[in-house]
Design a protein that fits this description.
With 369 residues, this protein is an alpha+beta fold. Helices cover 44% and strands 24% of the residues.
Length: 369
């Protein structure tokens, strides 16, 4: 590259993605990244039938949408990493099967010990909150190799997020900005953050931000943060400790964290049993690959939705009992009126994957082998 890096912004950490990645594109990127992480094969190959529902488009618009995605360009200045790149080196369509060739920077961000892994380069493309990249860049800039915490004033933090004159009350700043950023980064990055409030003269003046040192965790897994995420949902602390400890012996910390967060968002009754099914693979948080058949429907009325689900269970399960139906009915009722946006139910050989968008249910019935 012969572009003069001195022309980049003078701030020590910088990331610019143009054009902006929209929400549907981020969903596809997450699916591609997780598929690559699982199989470590580049290119990532996906049929059109997988891509269309993720992007929520018609088949005739698929090539145009992927062409737009291929044109996303990245300029970055992260400590001693300076460069220009794209998400994909190419996207190739072969008879409706698409091959996504990930860029060097993306694949390197999955390889432990590389510079792109250390700054978790891939996560910048997944953040949903506007302030998350700014906050994350600042943490990377201030992070010291031998420390896992920093202290930053509320004033400085607002300046970093470019909201200097907004949210006079810390309560509003925390509710509408801070908590959303921390949730965003904890979900999509390989780091895990928490914070403590520091008061001065009766007012919250600064934050002590603590984050997991994942380089150390690779050698000796530390489950404290994962336990803290789930402790308010478990009915048996000892069981939770055993589940997470066992999972960390066979999976990396980032994967376990995503599975814990998914379980927290998706369970309806017994968290520990749900988490155990997720860890064991009985519930796949991204996509079940052992599928005989599935179909998808949209519902605008809860009672029609419930009736069809029960009918489908009767057609495809054995040893049916009234208790199973009543139990499922209760769970679906809670889902309908609750705040959950996604729900997974495993019963016999059927997985129900349910997405709730406003008042519309999108239900996928999946029959496992």
């Amino acid at each position: 590259m012969d572009k003069d890096f001195s022309l980049l912004p003078e701030r020590p950490c910088y990331m610019d993605i143009t054009p902006r990645i929209n929400t549907r594109e981020k969903k596809l990127l997450l699916f591609i990244f997780e598929t690559y992480k699982k199989y470590r094969k580049n290119p990532v190959k996906l049929p059109a039938e997988k891509i269309i529902p993720i992007l929520e488009i018609e088949k005739k618009d698929l090539n145009i949408s992927l062409e737009k995605l291929s044109k996303k360009r990245i300029s970055y200045y992260l400590a001693d990493l300076h460069g220009f790149s794209s998400l994909f080196s190419s996207i190739i369509n072969t008879s409706g099967n698409y091959s996504f060739f990930l860029s060097h920077e993306i694949t390197e961000s999955f390889n432990f010990g590389t510079k792109f892994y250390n700054c978790d380069f891939k996560s910048f493309f997944l953040f949903n909150e506007k302030g998350s990249p700014l906050f994350f860049l600042e943490i990377l800039k201030r992070k010291k190799d031998n420390k896992n915490e920093i202290t930053i004033s509320v004033t400085d933090l607002k300046n970093i997020l470019m909201i200097e004159d907004a949210y006079d009350r810390f309560y509003d700043f925390e509710r509408y900005i801070l908590k959303k950023i921390f949730y965003d980064i904890n979900l999509f990055s390989r780091f895990s953050f928490s914070y403590e409030k520091i008061k001065k003269e009766g007012r919250i003046s600064s934050l002590r931000i603590v984050f997991d040192d994942f380089d150390a965790i690779q050698e000796e897994p530390d489950i404290n943060h994962l336990i803290s995420l789930a402790k308010d949902h478990t009915e048996n602390y000892k069981k939770l400790l055993e589940l997470i400890s066992a999972a960390l012996k066979v999976k990396d910390t980032e994967t376990v964290k995503k599975e814990v967060i998914f379980s927290i968002e998706s369970y309806t009754q017994n968290f520990d049993r749900f988490l155990e099914k997720v860890f064991s693979g009985k519930i796949d948080i991204y996509e079940d690959l052992n599928i005989v058949n599935y179909f998808e429907k949209e519902y605008y009325n809860f009672y029609t939705f419930q009736s069809d689900v029960i009918k489908e269970l009767k057609n495809h399960t054995e040893n049916n009992s009234l208790f199973e139906y009543l139990s499922l009915s209760y769970e679906l009722y809670g889902f309908f009126y609750g705040k959950h946006s996604s729900y997974t139910k495993l019963i016999y050989n059927i997985i129900l994957k349910i997405l709730k968008i406003d008042s519309v249910f999108i239900v996928k019935f999946i029959y496992k082998i």
